[in-house]
Write a structure and sequence with these properties.
With 148 residues, the chain is mainly α. It has eight helices and no strands. The two termini are 19 Å apart.
């Protein structure tokens, strides 16, 4: 422990393990090359962050989505995406997959129909990239939440 840090202060992971942070950033750069459109990634990032209750990430991903042209209505309605008409079937499939891979408590969904739904909209490569994207945002949410 640092003499200046209070015992309850957050650990600044990027300062203590910068090599790991560089590796995580490299995963994002590599995954970006596998065909997921940025607007979809914004929705996935924001929805997972909402589920995880990561205030920092919700602010960051909402702002980034708006800067890239996402509408306020679609962002405002994201928590009820299943009941809103403004999301495409591809977005709905990706958001269902996001929720299934983010909600880790309770009964797990039947992944077979979710994968079938994804395959109607995305290639195998895109599904793999989407899965990594979801895993990465969940990881970043947990890192950010550890600083609350």
């Amino acid at each position: 422990m640092n003499d200046t840090d209070a015992p309850s202060s957050p650990v600044h992971l990027e300062q203590h393990i910068p090599d790991v942070f560089k590796a995580l950033q490299a995963v994002h750069r590599a995954n970006d090359a596998h065909g997921l459109e940025q607007p979809l990634r914004h929705l996935v990032h924001l929805r997972a962050s909402q589920i995880n209750g990561c205030a920092h990430c919700i602010r960051m991903h909402s702002r980034a989505a708006r800067e890239d042209g996402e509408t306020d209505a679609r962002l405002d309605h994201l928590t009820a995406w299943e009941h809103m008409a403004e999301y495409t079937e591809a977005e709905r499939a990706a958001l269902a997959w996001t929720e299934a891979l983010t909600r880790l408590t309770g009964a797990h969904p039947d992944f077979g129909p979710l994968r079938a739904r994804l395959r109607r909209q995305f290639s195998e490569e895109q599904i793999a990239a989407l899965t990594v994207e979801i895993a990465m945002i969940n990881q970043w949410n947990r890192i950010a939440i550890s600083r609350h």
